């Protein structure tokens, strides 16, 4: 499986989606992998031999899971196989055309992560440095210390963006949009802590504790 960055197909909301992948998802996964805190398998790239696929039950064994890519990776590991990340990054093309589409998509991703690792997802609140420091600055009346912390958060995010653009060789969006992108990510994170339903291709589905999902009943 491979790490992936975001690439916009055009438009503001597609660019926001691409920036979320490149400047939040990608570094978070990299840190989790290096620190042995996560064992990812990404739907963007899954390469497996026919024999291994047969050993884990084929694709049919995962048709009822929302996080089917993650479950495939877990099944492979449980069979004793390794799941390496090669030193390359593929591109995921983002085509969201509205704020509603972006929020539904990212809320589904976040609730899926919550279903896989609830405590880890809640603990990831610490990665939202810019919105948290902005909230602190508002509560403290924009005092010198709170403004210094906010400036440090903004500078850190800008530096991270530069390093990702440099190492990956792509640019998902401009640095001046990054604070807005981070605030959207925080709103999505908070929303993901509540509720058990997701939107997928215009349909609503209910998530189950087992990791499965079913189509919501229409009243």
Q: Helix coverage percent of residues?
A: 40-55%
Count of DSSP E strands? 5
Number of helices: 8
* Whole-angstrom Rg: 18 Å
Strand arrangement, major sheet? 3-4-5
Strand content: 5-15%
Distance between the termini: 40 Å
Query: Order of SSEs, N→C?
Result: EHHHEHHHHHEEE
Class per helix and strand makeup: mainly alpha
How can the largest sheet be summarized?
A: 3 strands, antiparallel
Low confidence ranges: none
Name the average pLDDT.
89
Sequence-ordered SSE layout with sheet pairings:
Elements: E1 3-8, H1 12-34, H2 50-55, H3 68-78, E2 89-94, H4 99-116, H5 118-123, H6 129-139, H7 144-168, H8 178-192, E3 197-200, E4 203-207, E5 213-215
Parallel strand pairs: 1-2
Antiparallel strand pairs: 3-4, 4-5
Spell out the key features of this protein:
219 residues; mainly alpha; 3-stranded antiparallel β-sheet; two-stranded parallel ribbon; 8 helices; 53% helix; 11% strand; globular
Please tell me about this protein's structure.
The structure is a single chain. A hairpin with a 2-residue loop joins strand 3 (197-200) and strand 4 (203-207). This protein has eight helices and five strands, in the order E-H-H-H-E-H-H-H-H-H-E-E-E. Helix content is 53%, strand content 11%. Strands 3-4-5 form a three-stranded antiparallel sheet. Strands 1-2 form a two-stranded parallel ribbon. Helix 1 runs parallel beside helix 4. 26% of the residues are buried. With 219 residues, the chain is mostly helical. The termini are far apart.
